[in-house]
Request: fold
Amino acid sequence: VLMRFLLPLLLVFLIGVTPLLADSWPPPRIETTYSANQAFRFVTEPRDIKSPLAYFEAKAAGMDLPRAVPARGRLQRQTGTGWETVWAIDLANEVAPVTALVSDDGKRVVTFDNWHSIGIGHNVIVIYGNEGKLILSLSLDQLIPAYFIDALPRSVSSLTWQATEPRIEGDTLELAIRDVERELKIPAFRIHISLNDG
Reply:
């Protein structure tokens, strides 16, 4: 009799708990992102990690990671015969950005998130300017309040914070922050960031 009473309560409790979704990350690899007009491309080369498993174990244990070749980024311009490098720099990311955007004039490159930690860390959004100069590096809590971040869907490693693909319009980065209507009754909304000065 007691079990008949407790079982429905247990089910209600389990349904009400926000689950942490499992996620899977392939090893980081070289990625190429083209500007909308195809005149420029940005090539990201991830940090040299010998083994994703060893990397995760070291991070989970709070150990210092061994020195490695850092993540690199190369902005290239289309020429009549191929691609010419405009600039090449070490990136702000610990391993590699997840995605990137390149402006049509090649003056700005924006990277998003870090491999295996979407929405987490100090480089959720990074804007690079002329010669790869760092213009801005933002964490998610610099964009939206902590209570909103707490309501975002999450997996073991990441937060789902974007509603749609970001885009560059002129000198402005346009982001759509996903809704948290179920938890906070706040619909998706847009944020605009100046690419010139953040």
